[in-house]
Amino acid sequence: MNIIFLGPPGAGKGTQAQRICDALSIPQISTGDMLRKAVKEGTPTGLKAKEYMDAGKLVPDEVLIELIRDRLSEEDCQKGYILDGFPRTVPQAEALEGIARIDAVVELNVPDDHLVNRLSGRRVCLNCGATYHVSLLQGRENCEKCGEKLIQRKDDAPETVLNRLKVYHDQTAPLIDFYQGKGLLQTFDGTKGMEEVYQSIMEALNKLS
């Protein structure tokens, strides 16, 4: 099954996508990981992408589509995959239609105020990577696992979160109507517990398979 995950930053796409991939034995394809792999391996498309990245420019859609086409042709994608972080715009979605058949689009819907609280309250340990939320720390400032001091990432500062959400609503949210019009969209309440969301997604996907 070929699946796209949609949702604003902090909605839990990465976590749910990984669990679904494990359950279905299919790969999770992230454009960031894909770009780094292509650049590291020095593929022709990877070298093209590197030119833009080294110049501090966004990688153009046509290069991203080439990368996606190359990646989807690999052996591990033949039974399906989850695209996480692509497409981000309607033009990218239209281009994707020319190279891939999509069976379902999973949207995690979370209100902005919930996301701002979720992300701006996140604290991270730079030493071991553990993540916490201030609501559960009870005033503690150090990691329970390794004892190092916890920090708030710049990406999680309230003003940065609001800007990330604006970019999502302006550029990516139109994909919701795009895929709804094609009868592919499956929307889930991302404010619910992680296990409940996972079970709801799996139930919906099982009905499609």
Structure notes:
With 209 residues, this protein is α/β, with parallel strands linked by helices. It has a single domain (2-26, 79-208), classed as 3-Layer(aba) Sandwich (Rossmann fold), CATH 3.40.50.300. It has 10 helices and 8 strands. The strands form 2 sheets. Strands 2-3-1-4-8 form a 5-stranded parallel β-sheet, sandwiched between helices. It has a 3-stranded antiparallel β-sheet with strand order 6-5-7. β5 and β6 form a beta hairpin. α2 packs across α3 and α3 runs antiparallel to α4.
Give me the secondary-structure topology:
Layout: E1 2-6, H1 13-24, E2 28-30, H2 31-41, H3 44-54, H4 61-72, E3 81-84, H5 90-97, E4 104-109, H6 112-120, E5 122-125, E6 131-133, H7 134-137, E7 150-151, H8 158-172, H9 174-180, E8 185-189, H10 194-208
Parallel strand pairs: 1-3, 1-4, 2-3, 4-8
Antiparallel strand pairs: 5-6, 5-7
Kindly state the mean pLDDT as a whole number?
A: 94
- Tell me the strand percentage band: 15-25%
CATH class: Alpha Beta
E-strand count: 8
Number of helices: 10
Secondary structure category: alpha/beta
Compute the gyration radius: what is it?
18 Å
Specify the helix fraction band. 40-55%
Spans where pLDDT lies below 50 across 5 or more residues: none
CATH architecture: 3-Layer(aba) Sandwich
Q: In the residues, how many domains can be counted?
A: 1
Q: Give the N-to-C terminal Cα separation.
A: 7 Å
Structural shape: globular
Q: Characterize the largest beta sheet: strand count, sense, and whether it forms a barrel.
A: 5 strands, parallel
CATH topology: Rossmann fold
Question: What's the arrangement of strands in the largest beta sheet?
Answer: 2-3-1-4-8
Q: List the secondary-structure elements in sequence, H or E.
A: EHEHHHEHEHEEHEHHEH
At the fourth CATH level, what is the homologous superfamily? P-loop containing nucleotide triphosphate hydrolases
